[in-house]
Design brief:
Order of helices and strands: HEEEEEEEEE
Number of helices: 1
Radius of gyration: 17 Å
Number of domains: 1
Strand content: over 45%
Shape: elongated
CATH architecture: Beta Barrel
Length: 154
Amino acid sequence: MKRTLLVITLIVCSLFALSASRYDRADGLGIGLSAGYPVAGLAVKYGMGDSRFIGTVGYNYNNNFAFEAGVQYDLSHSTSNSSPLYLNIGITGTANFNPEFNFFSINVPLGLSLYFRNAPIELFVKLAPGMRISSNNTVEPDFGAAFGILFYVN
């Protein structure tokens, strides 16, 4: 176990050394973790400039497999501090699976992304109001929220 932890630490440290440039916002492929509702698990983002494709694969709080995918657009940013902070909005679709289909939701996430200047890392938080369509064809309000971290592997 200690050897595995040491190898992972060395790999992560070498990735930081490879990306010694200054970032205003990381572009390319970001891989990391997201915790929240409706999906918690492996998070990915891919994009250039103001537009990004986003997705999360994992589980919800009922221990059912869940998948979220959508797009995100950066509305504005602030550089008043040492790391840029971006306000973004998007649209996502989420499917939640039991042994049979459980529900599908469409959400409009509004979030903040903080990018580190000296490393290709993003910290994010989002609130996502929307609508949930259940397997018994009922439509009800849905509200999601998540936070996470991404490492960009340009």
